């Protein structure tokens, strides 16, 4: 008599899903890892891709290639959209909208979080987040495209609006983006234009708190604030961005003061996160409690109460105030794999214990923050520590070498090696700027298409 091997389905190829799959490699199980992009993205460096320091190939790697040596691991392209917890079946959607199903004995939910607009989803059109490779390339197009468009305009308010960049959210991603935009304007682009002075570009950073980088120690926050101000970033604290338009934002102070409008053609959103639809579906089907952001309440072993066969790891974990950082996802993936292995061996599961390895944030060349327990580094030492940590966790030796090389070039020279951006051809349905809609009449409501056709050159 033969018995089938345990089927493990991992949804999500981020840090949690990848580390879980690796630990289950060569185990006596069949693992299927499904991801909507079929690649692992090193999210902490997305902003460097967006600002032209690194290419998408340096911060991502095919999951199929990464896991090729584990013969018991299968990788599939698709987005999980539904769960039948009783039948233990996940429904997955292909890019062409068709679907397929995956049966499991154990399910690991590692789908992470997406950008949150707090009920204002319309903001996303003009204020992209920073969660995917698509986001990074969209932001790169907007950033470098803004300088190019400003070059074609005469001095005045319209040119100024193209040279104004608004960042909503003062956490690590927002700080990193703001610092990089100013550094890009003052170094890489400083001597390349004839009609404009890129150094005059304004970067506005808005946050609802009393300080930026709220998760860091106060002394590090103060140093980061001074560094950003020295770079020329304009900090606006204690405010919320309450409206986003093609040509600017409205900012409302928390103390009830009157709102202020800012003209800015480029708006970037890093103000919050929320669970993806599949995570909310998992909570609904299993009856697991979840918070406003969609984080799911789990038992001490990271399984859903009443469903020991379903693990939730990474940013989605709603217990013990676990941080939404890469280290939490990595450790959660390793823990879930350990629980599965112990179960196969007839051993009881152990509770998950998160080990805080610290936090880091890059501000500008030679300036970064590193906080790990009692260790607090800023400036050059923080920058060196930040670089070593990020190189260590990049997937693939080739990515580590090429990324280190790109950083060395950036240190030695002001130029950035990956600034190419594509505005799209006449057949592309996507565009970042309103003037391109005249080349895409199908994007307009039916009643406006004739006018667009007559206006098109």
TrEMBL record:
Entries under InterPro entries matching the protein: FAD/NAD-bd_sf (IPR036188), FAD/NAD-binding_dom (IPR023753), NADH-Q_oxidoreductase (IPR051169)
Domain FAD/NAD(P)-binding: start-end pairs: 7-333
Cofactor(s) the record lists: FAD
GO aspect biological process, one term: aerobic electron transport chain
Domain of life where this protein originates: Bacteria
Annotated GO MF terms: NAD(P)H dehydrogenase (quinone) activity
One Pfam family hit: Pyr_redox_2
Keyword tags: FAD, Flavoprotein, Oxidoreductase
Signal sequence extent: none
UniProt keyword Flavoprotein, yes or no: yes
Sequence similarity: Belongs to the NADH dehydrogenase family.
PANTHER family reported in the protein's UniProt record: 64 KDA MITOCHONDRIAL NADH DEHYDROGENASE (EUROFUNG), APOPTOSIS-INDUCING FACTOR 1
UniProt name for this protein: NADH dehydrogenase, FAD-containing subunit
Organism listed in the record: Mycolicibacterium cosmeticum
């Amino acid at each position: 008599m033969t018995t089938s091997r345990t089927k493990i389905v991992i949804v999500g190829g981020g840090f949690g899903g990848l580390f879980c799959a690796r630990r289950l490699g060569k185990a006596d199980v069949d693992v299927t890892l499904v991801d909507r992009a079929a690649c692992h993205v090193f999210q902490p460096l997305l902003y460097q891709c967006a600002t032209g320091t690194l290419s998408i190939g340096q911060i991502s790697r095919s999951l199929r290639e990464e896991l090729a040596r584990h013969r018991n691991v299968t990788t599939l392209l698709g987005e999980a959209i539904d769960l039948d917890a009783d039948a233990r079946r996940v429904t997955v959607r292909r890019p062409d909208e068709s679907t397929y199903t995956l049966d499991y004995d154990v399910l690991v939910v590692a789908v992470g979080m997406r950008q949150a607009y707090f009920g204002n989803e319309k903001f996303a059109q003009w204020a992209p987040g920073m969660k995917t490779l698509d986001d990074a390339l969209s932001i790169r197009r907007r950033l470098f495209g803004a300088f190019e468009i400003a070059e074609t305009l005469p001095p005045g308010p319209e040119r100024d609006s193209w040279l104004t960049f608004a960042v909503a959210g003062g956490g690590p991603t927002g700080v990193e983006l703001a610092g990089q935009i100013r550094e890009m304007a003052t170094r890489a682009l400083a001597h390349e234009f004839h009609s404009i002075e890129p150094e005059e570009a304004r970067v506005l950073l808005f946050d609802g708190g009393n300080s930026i980088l709220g998760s860091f120690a106060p002394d590090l926050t103060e140093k980061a604030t001074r560094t950003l101000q020295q770079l020329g970033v304009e900090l606006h604290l204690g405010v919320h961005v309450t409206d986003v338009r093609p040509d600017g934002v409205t900012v409302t102070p928390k103390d009830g003061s009157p709102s202020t409008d800012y003209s800015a053609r480029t708006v970037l959103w890093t103000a919050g996160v929320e669970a993806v639809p599949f995570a909310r579906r998992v909570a609904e089907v299993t009856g697991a409690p979840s918070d406003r952001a969609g984080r799911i309440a789990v038992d001490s072993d990271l399984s859903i109460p009443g469903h020991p066969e379903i693990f939730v790891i990474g940013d989605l974990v709603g217990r013990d105030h676990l941080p939404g950082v890469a280290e939490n996802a990595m450790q959660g993936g390793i823990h879930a794999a350990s629980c599965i292995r112990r179960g196969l061996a007839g051993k009881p599961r152990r509770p998950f214990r998160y080990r805080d390895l610290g936090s880091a944030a890059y501000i500008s060349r030679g300036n970064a923050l590193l906080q790990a327990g009692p260790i607090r580094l800023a400036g050059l030492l923080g920058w060196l520590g930040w670089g070593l940590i990020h190189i260590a966790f990049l997937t693939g030796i080739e990515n580590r070498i090429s990324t280190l090389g790109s950083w060395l070039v950036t240190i030695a020279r002001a130029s950035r090696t990956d600034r190419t951006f594509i505005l799209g051809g006449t057949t592309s349905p996507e565009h970042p700027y309103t003037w391109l809609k005249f080349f895409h009449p199908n994007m307009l409501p039916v009643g406006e298409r004739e006018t667009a056709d007559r206006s098109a050159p």
